[in-house]
Specification:
The complex is a heterodimer of chains A (178) and B (191). Chain A has 6 helices and no strands. Chain A is globular, with a radius of gyration of 21 Å. With 178 residues, chain A is mainly α. Chain B is mainly α and 191 residues long. Helix content of chain B is 60%, strand content 0%. Chain B is built from 8 helices and no strands. Chain B is elongated, with a radius of gyration of 23 Å. At the A-B interface, helix 1, helix 2, helix 3, helix 4 and helix 5 of A face helix 1, helix 2 and helix 3 of B.
Chain lengths: 178, 191
Amino acid sequence: MTEVPSYLSPTGQEIVFLLLGAVAVGSALLVVTTRQLVHAALWLVVCFGALAGCYLVLTAEFVAWVQVLIYVGAIVVLLLFGIMLTRAPIGRSADLDSPNRPTAAIVAIATAAVLVTVVVDGFRMAYVPLEPGGGSAGELGASIFRNWVLPFEALSVLLLAALIGAIVLSRTDIRGRD
Amino acid sequence: MHVVYPAVVSALLFSIGVYGVLARRNTILVLMSVELMLNAVNLNLVAFDVWLRDRLHGGQVLTLFVIVIAAAEVGLGLAIILALYRNRQTVDLDRLRSLSDLTDTSGPTDTGPTDTGLTGTGPTDTGLTDADPGNPGSHSPPRDRPPAESRSLPRTLTQPQPQTQTHTETDTRRSRPEPGSEADTRPGDAP
C-alpha cells in the first residue's frame, strides 16, 4: 500500500473486473426496470454470473463457485417457481412498477452518489496486488472449521428452522389451534 | 487491483437494489432486489477480505454465511408470498394495506373507476376487516373455491358460531364481485 499505481494504466485483471462489473450493473439495472417478470429472473442469472466472475478475479474461488451453485442454481430457480405459482403474467405487464417510481429513483440516485463519493474518497489510495490461492477451498475450509465452527453450527440450526418454517407456511392442511 | 473498483461496483449494485425495492410493485421483484443488495454486500466483503489479507478469512467466510442466509430468506419469503397469494389472490404490494389506517386507504388502492364501486366487497377491502374478528365476511372468499383450497379454511376462519346464518348471504355477496373485480382491476392498472 505504499506505492499506488496510476489509474490510467490498468492491469489486465482490472480491465476484466471492470468489464464484469459493467455486465453485473447493467443486468441489475435491467432486473429492476424490465417489464417482464420472467426476464427479470433471467437477467438476475446474468448478474449473479458476472458477480461470480468478479469473485474469481478477486481470487475468491470458493466463494465464486458457491455463488454459482446457490444463487444461480437454487435461488433463481426458487424465484422462478414463485413466479409460476403466483400465476404471474408471462408476457409484458404494465403494472410491475408502483406509482412512487420517481421518488424511488431520486432516493436511489442519492444513495449511489453518496456511496460512490465516500468510497472513492476513502479508498483512492488503497491497492491490493492479487495473489492466487487466498480463497481456495482448502484455505476456507480450514478457516471455517478451525475458527468459525460455532457460527457454522448456528447457521445449520437456522437453516433447519427456515426449512421447517417454509414447510409449515406453505402447507394448507396444518391447522392452527382453535 | 485498486480497491475502488469493487467498492464502486458494489455501491452501484446496492443503489440499484434500493431502487428496485422502492419502485417495484410485485413482491417477487422486491425479493430479487433484496438479493441484489445482499450481493453488493458480498462483493464488498470479498474485496476487503482480499485487501486486508485476513488470516482468519473472516470476509469470505461471512460471505458464505450471507449466501446461506439469503437462501433461507428466499425460501421463507416465497412461502410467505404463496400463503399471501392463497389468501388474497394478489401479490401486489400496493394492495396489501391491512396494516394502514382506514382513512388513507381510499387513495392509492383504487386503481380504476370501476374498483370504487366494489370497495365494500372488493379484494382490497378484505384486509381492512381483518382486525374485526366478528366479521365473517372478511375471510369468506375461500368458501367458493374448490376443495383443495377450502382445506385451509379452518385456519383462517376461526369463529364457528356466526357462520351458519351469514353463510348464504356472504356467498351471494362474494360470488358476484369475485370474477368481476379481477377483470375490473386489470385494465385499470394499465395506464
